[in-house]
């Protein structure tokens, strides 16, 4: 089992798992160290690594079914239109392929098409634990090739001189999701108020006293909190 904390960067990796994936997959990621996990609906792909790597995960049965109904290539087109790296992983053994009604030639042709036409690497795993291990290793390799050892949000925080605290990052993400805030304003608010509870209860005057925060930003903040 791979502990991601042993990677060249000991910084947490953000992993988002689609909420339609089996709960066992989420639990398997939870067993690994140094990950910030989120479960939510992804409109493209099944697993997203730090907005850098998008993964379509398919069991053998689902792969063959999606090949027959054309869903596979629709999904790959959507993946290829994103700006992230993309990977298809097929989970299961050879015996499972033999139980489907899809001819081996069709399966081989589809895999070749995925790799050559869509430029999406195809990986194989036997089960969920191996899937997680392979994907973490895949992200690590991509990280090294791209020479980006620190996820984007960590690089920003490091430049500001902050320690790498996962809770601190979660606070920033909550605030940055508000219209008009973004990273820098969210960081300034956290620096002043420290906790989200205190920030949400603060007066309008205290809120506006933070550098870079204007009336429009405050109005949008109030609208999200109260509407």
UniProtKB/TrEMBL annotation:
GO cellular component terms listed in the entry, alphabetical order = Holliday junction resolvase complex
Q: Which SMART domains match?
A: ERCC4
InterPro entries on file: ERCC4_domain (IPR006166), Mus81 (IPR033309), Restrct_endonuc-II-like (IPR011335), RuvA_2-like (IPR010994)
Q: Which residues form the ERCC4 domain?
A: 14-94
Which superkingdom is the protein from? Bacteria
Single GO MF annotation: 3'-flap endonuclease activity
Task: Kindly state which keywords UniProt assigns to this record, in alphabetical order.
Answer: Hydrolase
Signal sequence interval, chain numbering: none
Q: Which biological process annotations from GO are given for this protein? A: DNA catabolic process; double-strand break repair via break-induced replication
Q: Which Pfam families does the record associate with it?
A: ERCC4 (PF02732)
Protein name as catalogued = ERCC4-type nuclease
Give the classification, highest ranks.
Bacteria, Pseudomonadati, Bacteroidota, Cytophagia, Cytophagales
């Amino acid at each position: 089992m791979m502990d991601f904390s042993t990677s060249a960067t000991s910084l947490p990796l953000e992993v988002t798992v689609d909420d339609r994936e089996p709960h066992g997959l989420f639990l398997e990621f939870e067993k690994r160290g140094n990950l910030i996990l989120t479960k939510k609906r992804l409109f493209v792909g099944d697993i997203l690594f730090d907005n850098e790597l998008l993964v379509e995960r398919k069991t053998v049965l689902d792969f063959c079914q999606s090949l027959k109904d054309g869903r596979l290539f629709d999904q790959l087109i959507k993946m290829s239109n994103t700006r992230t790296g993309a990977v298809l992983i097929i989970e299961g053994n050879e015996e499972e392929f033999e139980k489907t009604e899809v001819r081996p030639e069709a399966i081989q042709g589809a895999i070749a098409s995925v790799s050559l036409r869509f430029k999406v690497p195809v990986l194989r795993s036997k089960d969920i634990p191996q899937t997680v291990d392979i994907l973490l290793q895949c992200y690590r390799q991509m990280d090294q090739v791209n020479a980006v050892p620190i996820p984007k949000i960590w690089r920003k925080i490091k430049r500001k001189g902050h320690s790498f605290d996962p809770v601190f990052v979660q606070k920033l993400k909550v605030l940055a999701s508000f219209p008009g805030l973004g990273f820098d304003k969210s960081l300034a608010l956290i620096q002043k108020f420290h906790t989200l509870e205190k920030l949400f209860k603060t007066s309008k005057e205290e809120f506006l006293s933070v550098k870079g925060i204007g009336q429009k930003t405050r109005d949008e903040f109030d609208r999200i909190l109260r509407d």
